[in-house]
Design a protein that fits this description.
- The chain has a nine-stranded mixed sheet with strand order 4-3-5-2-1-6-8-9-7, sandwiched between helices.
- It is 37% helix and 18% strand.
- The radius of gyration is 17 Å and the shape is globular.
- By secondary structure, the chain is of the alpha/beta class.
Length: 236
């Protein structure tokens, strides 16, 4: 395997599948099988998943919600997704644990780096919910923070597109994909890979990001084996 320890960032929206809302059970099962297969190969896996399929704080704020309360609702949404994914992975025969950035036992254990590292070394998949535990920070920033904390080799950002393009490929048919790109170029081009706080954290801590399409079954295994043709690498 090219990578021994990863932080996998998944979007909440991707769990919707074709439904357009909530959690698509088939998509959840596809993700869980890919993750469980990788864990059985000995890869240490930390996961951060968004909550946009249920509630997104920024969208709530745009509709009149207090941003502080909206972000707290978003944290709870990430917890629901984390619980669903942990159960789906466990059903594949691989132990999975939910750690939460805000205290909410018995739903999940309170996150700490030592506990996360201990569980990873035991071979458990560790799903880290609630982002950073603070309002005004996205789950992108939460995933960057957790990737750095668990000393991951790479942050894998599973999305609905196969990498980073010069423009939105769903809107601009002339958009071309980068095989690799630097953090500075992402910033200078104004590309929407992650929010600026998350990108800056990865740049400052030399944490590479690989963006790929997680919805295509088998792509995760390809990335872990070192096949860089299925996405875009972001690095210093």
């Amino acid at each position: 395997m090219k990578y021994n320890r990863i932080l996998l960032k998944l979007s909440g929206e991707s769990l919707m599948g074709r439904q357009g809302y909530g959690i698509d059970v088939e998509r959840l099962a596809d993700y869980a099988k890919q993750i469980a297969d990788a864990a059985r190969e000995g890869v240490k896996i930390g996961i951060v998943i968004g909550g946009g399929n249920i509630f997104r704080g920024l969208q709530g704020a745009a509709k009149g919600f207090d941003r502080y309360k909206g972000d707290q609702m978003g944290m709870l949404a990430t917890t629901i997704n984390s619980l669903a994914l942990s159960q789906a992975i466990a059903s594949q025969g691989v132990p999975a644990r939910v750690l939460t950035a805000i205290r909410m036992e018995p739903i999940g254990e309170l996150y700490s780096k030592p506990r996360a590292m201990e569980l990873l070394e035991k071979g458990e998949v560790v799903i880290m919910a609630c982002g950073t535990g603070n309002p005004y920070f996205t789950t992108d920033t939460g995933s960057s923070l957790r990737a750095i904390e668990i000393e991951a080799d790479v942050m894998l950002k599973g999305t609905r597109v196969d990498g980073i393009y010069t423009a939105d490929p769903e809107k601009d048919k002339t958009a071309t994909r980068f095989d690799q790109i630097t953090y500075d170029e992402v910033y200078n081009r104004g590309l929407k890979v992650m929010d600026l706080t998350a990108t800056a954290m990865c740049k400052e801590n030399n944490m590479p990001i690989f963006v790929f399409n997680m919805d295509i079954v088998g792509n995760l295994a390809k990335v872990l084996a070192g096949d860089m043709s299925v996405g875009t690498l972001v690095h210093n």
